[in-house]
Amino acid sequence: MNHFAVLLFLPTGALAAELFDGYETYYSSLPNRLFQSSGVELEPFSLEGEQDIRYVWQGMAAGGRHKVELKEGKVILDGRTWLAKSIKAFPGEVVNAGDLGRGAVAYFAAGWACVENTPASASGTAVRHKSVYLLRLGRSKPQGWKLPSLFASCQGLRFLNGQVRFDRLEYRYQGDKDEPAGVVFNEYAIKSGRFVPLAGKHFASFVEEGNVYRFLLD
Prior knowledge:
The protein is mostly beta strands. It folds into 2 domains: 1-33 and 157-218, no CATH class; 35-152, no CATH class. It has 2 helices and 17 strands. It has helices at 3-9, 23-28; strands at 18-21, 40-41, 43-45, 54-61, 64-71, 74-77, 80-82, 87-89, 105-109, 112-117, 131-136, 143-146, 158-160, 163-172, 182-191, 194-208, 211-217. The protein has a 6-stranded antiparallel β-sheet with strand order 1-17-16-15-14-13. The radius of gyration is 19 Å and the shape is globular. The two termini are 22 Å apart.
């Protein structure tokens, strides 16, 4: 695409907007991030005689020693097991045993952990969706949430005023075009275990038609 075509695609006032090459780059620029450290990738592991592969990581993170294991659709973290019934899914999302597996990455913070993964079988527009599981540590019962998946990342979680905050992304369209022109970041919080919409809303516009990973924040 030539430079003239790119300029035509930019929104009004784009010269004052901030350009991001990827959602992780945008998330890393946000204040009050819950997970300040880099994630750790889980490695495949199997015991002799086992047919199913589990994915494991153990080591020091966020000032403590942790072990996380993904096995048969369950998350086992520091000796405690999160079953599907322990996870509250955001409306429109489903807790699936195949969400977390090969390529999964875990993040840790005081009192919290997060595991994310894009299934290896994903193709086409499905690769834009990432399963993100937020886990509360140190409670009497395992408690967790599955967050909205479109362009999601554990790195996008914030902690402010005693609440975890995150964004639900949705596409923006112009006129009758089939391809999205950008996305909207709709802010939510987890309050008393529930998903609560907030007033925060940010708009982004794609700078190259067909490229949903390079955008200007309006």
